[in-house]
Design goal:
Chain lengths: ~475, ~325
């Protein structure tokens, strides 16, 4: 009995060590050092850094405050990541994209000789934790390479503005296009709301006779912003919304999946738009199938898709491959573009498995890279200097990996309306030649989305 | 009462919808019942609510995915068997592994706590939950892992009701396990378990190996959690398989445990099916706009509150008698 506490402590420590060591794909909250070792230099990686001739000319004096150490030759960027919450499977891959990109930049000489290091914190997708970790990191980093979650980013937005720090939102909320909100944010990709307009209008081109649509989603900015766009485009196209399960689907609550599936199956809709996480999507789709619902075209916002839905042991693979259209903010893994080739080279050199989500990390890192180069060129690498540099970027190009972004001009000029559309690719996934998606449309925007005039977020999100 | 009358009125109007609702509810309820039985078995023997039950569910489902699809063990050596039988043997092996893991957890983390305050033991189970869930999630990784159930999308369509083959199997397995546990509780070990739950010290004085009873309880709970995780992670529930969120399903079974009575295995089964059918009824009939979306998700908790108002110890729980 006397030795119990020792034994207990020993096994607890053992368990924690196992947890820390287990697996190799996720949970990495360290800097890029590991990735630097992994990412052996490739020809493409060497070519990749976009240092301009102008930027290479060192300004007479560079102002710095936080997160840039000219003597040590380092730039520190913060990542507020969900590494243990509902989006952790995706964010872990996205962070690997950051790691690989910056490792390749550092190997090629860094940002004008300065090596980039990442300070990663796990927010667990909890707003309070997110705010606390922002407060911790703001005195260590020059900018935030991403801030995961819309309510979370809204919660730190007033602090970002007060502190004069830049953040890249890792969400596609339409509110980021609002000048009243985005003074310290550089969003990227098509917002959920516009995405729904694009995809649903595209579905009507594939099923011109369709007159009805069923919509369902997770609650919050993600699902509700998306479905606000779905309702707008349905009105514009004269589609009848025969089931509206907006905000119904809660990933951890099987009753809500059944509710959405029953609603969709009972509606007899010809088009279905479901915005949720991939596993919940699979549950809703599977239960609708089990209820005898078939023949409709399905789609959902980008994060609803995961190639595991059509994996070799997935029972819904074949029907889903027939019914589903994949919405994407960036081109799928196997797409034929220099940007995609660069991602493939980075990932293959690191020996990581092929997945689409690395691209998101690379895109975020590329935006930050351009901002750092512009700040260096302006001789101001303070937190505010990097913010100002980012907000002055007229064009950030991703070489076909994603649509170009601009951060100058009016809200409607900056609003991203372009996206990619793919179809499930069973053969490619099985044969290892794709990540389960075949590109069918690049830089696509629908007439409704193209004509959309932004004046406020499609779905209002409360601060905090 | 009003809700019940509304459901009753609509049920009488469409017999087919009622039958479908009932079948869906029983299918759902079977998963809740399996989870609730696991909670109750550990509570009955240790008087502790096991907060690590979710982690056991996720772990069990992961082990099944690993044995049945990745390793194909031991099925790969049993090629003389049909595919479905190989898969079944793989699943049983994974469930035995889950049960052994349950014993290991009990032996390492819980056994040293014998005699300590029950509150402290419950907190240890919280710690175990975090450790096991973290390790399991790391093993699962970022992609859902399919379990490779051989029934695929097959559905039995009787015209008036549709039910997936996986749900038919699930209900049959639940009934078999229920019978097996009822039989076990009448066995020598089962009686010892009940005696341990009643009074550990007296049971020990009568020669019961209390530690062994705890191990058996954790093994059974882990086995049942694995079975629940299996049926929750296949078509039509979550067709893509086990993922990092699978563990959370266990906490959806809490109302079932409370409704049935914390220390009653038949109560857990009744509670499980009651919650399943209540949720299914709410899905089918309580679709009024003023209720908003997500109402079926809270029906189990509403039912729990109603039951507790009428029977504070649950439908079949043991009333606690206190001298005042």
């Amino acid at each position: 009995m006397r030795n119990k506490p020792k034994w207990l402590a020993l096994f607890l420590v053992l368990g924690l060590v196992l947890a820390a060591c287990g697996g190799g794909e996720g949970g990495d909250t360290t800097t890029t050092a590991a990735a630097e070792e992994e990412a052996t230099t490739t020809a493409a990686a060497e070519e990749e850094p976009t240092t301009t001739a102008a930027a290479e000319e060192e300004p007479a004096e560079i102002a710095t405050d936080v997160g840039v150490d000219l003597e040590a030759g380092t730039i520190t960027i913060g990542l507020l990541s969900d590494l243990s919450g509902p989006f952790s499977p995706l964010v872990q891959i996205i962070n690997t994209g950051h790691d690989l990109y910056w490792a390749s930049v550092n190997e090629a000489g860094g940002v004008n000789g300065l090596n980039v290091e990442l300070e990663v914190r796990d927010t667990g997708y909890v707003v309070d934790t997110h705010v606390q970790l922002y407060e911790e990191l703001k005195s260590q980093v020059v900018a935030f390479g991403h801030s995961t979650g819309s309510p979370h980013t809204v919660a730190i937005n007033s602090s970002l503005q007060a502190d004069g720090i830049l953040a890249i939102p890792l969400t596609w909320y339409s509110g980021w296009s609002d000048p009243a909100i985005n003074s310290n944010l550089v969003p990227h990709g098509v917002p959920y709301c516009i995405e729904a307009m694009n995809m649903i209008e595209y579905l009507t081109t594939q099923a011109p006779e369709a007159t009805t649509i069923a919509i369902a989603s997770s609650p919050g900015d993600y699902g509700q912003d998306s479905n606000a766009g779905a309702v707008m485009v349905a009105e514009a196209l004269g589609l009848e919304v025969v089931y509206d399960g907006t905000g119904t689907i809660v990933a951890t609550d099987p009753a809500t999946l059944a509710e959405a599936a029953n609603g969709i199956a009972g509606s007899g809709a010809e088009l279905v738009w479901v915005t949720t996480d991939p596993t919940s999507f699979g549950g809703v789709y599977g239960q609708a199938l089990a209820a005898g619902f078939s023949g409709a075209l399905w789609s959902g916002a980008g994060p609803s898709w995961n190639p595991a839905l059509i994996g070799p042991d997935s029972p819904i693979a074949e029907p889903l491959a027939n019914d589903f259209y994949i919405s994407q903010y960036y081109a799928p893994w196997a797409a034929d573009s220099p940007g995609n080739q660069m991602v493939r080279d980075l990932v293959e050199a690191a020996g990581a498995p092929p997945l689409d989500y690395y691209a998101e990390g690379v895109i975020e890192a590329k935006i930050m890279h351009e901002a750092l180069l512009a700040a260096y060129e302006a001789g101001d690498m303070t937190q505010t200097g990097v913010l100002n540099a980012a907000k002055s970027l007229e064009s950030v190009t991703f070489d076909g990996l994603a649509p170009d972004e601009t951060y100058v001009g009016e809200a409607n000029d900056r609003l991203q309306r372009l996206q990619f559309i793919s179809r499930p690719d069973l053969e490619g996934l099985a044969g290892g030649t794709s990540t389960g998606a075949t590109l069918v449309e690049s830089d696509y925007t629908s007439p409704t989305a193209a004509a959309f005039q932004f004046d406020a977020a499609c779905f209002a999100l409360e601060a905090g | 009462m009003t809700i019940g009358l509304v459901v009753l009125a609509q049920a009488t109007a469409d017999g087919n919808a009622f039958a479908q609702m009932l079948v869906d509810g029983i299918s759902f309820g079977a998963i809740y019942a399996l989870l609730a039985m696991g909670f109750v078995i550990i509570f009955k023997s240790t008087s502790v609510i096991n907060f690590a039950h979710g982690a056991l569910t996720g772990l069990g489902a992961f082990l099944i995915a690993a044995f049945a699809t990745v390793l194909d063990f031991p099925g790969r050596y049993l090629t003389f068997l049909p595919e479905w039988a190989q898969w079944t043997v793989n699943v049983l092996t994974a469930l035995v592994a889950a049960a052994l893991f349950g014993i290991l957890l009990e032996r390492v983390f819980l056994r040293p706590m014998v005699g300590e305050a029950l509150f402290a033991v419950a907190i240890v189970t919280l710690g175990v939950d975090i450790v096991v869930r973290t390790i399991t999630n790391d093993w699962i990784g970022t992609q859902p892992r399919p379990l490779g159930a051989p029934w695929g999308l097959e559905v039995v369509d009787l015209g008036w009701v549709r039910i997936a083959w996986s749900e038919v199997i699930q209900i049959l397995v639940t009934i078999i396990l229920l019978g097996a546990i009822a039989f076990f509780l009448r066995s020598r070990t089962g009686v010892a378990m009940r005696a341990t739950a009643f009074d550990q010290e007296t049971a020990r004085a009568q020669g019961v190996n209390v530690g062994r009873i705890f191990s058996v309880a954790w093994a059974i709970a882990a086995f049942l959690a694995g079975v629940a995780g299996l049926f929750y992670s296949i078509f039509p529930r979550r067709a893509t398989g086990v993922d990092q969120a699978t563990a959370f399903i266990a906490f959806r079974a809490f109302p079932a445990v409370i409704i049935g009575g914390l220390d009653s295995i038949p109560g857990a089964v009744v509670g499980g099916f009651a919650v399943g059918i209540a949720e299914s009824a709410a899905n089918t009939y309580l679709t009024f706009e003023f209720l908003g979306n997500g109402f079926p998700g809270i029906v189990g908790y509403l039912l729990m509150m109603v039951v507790l108002l009428i029977r504070p110890y649950g439908l079949l729980g043991t009333p606690e008698i206190r001298r005042v």
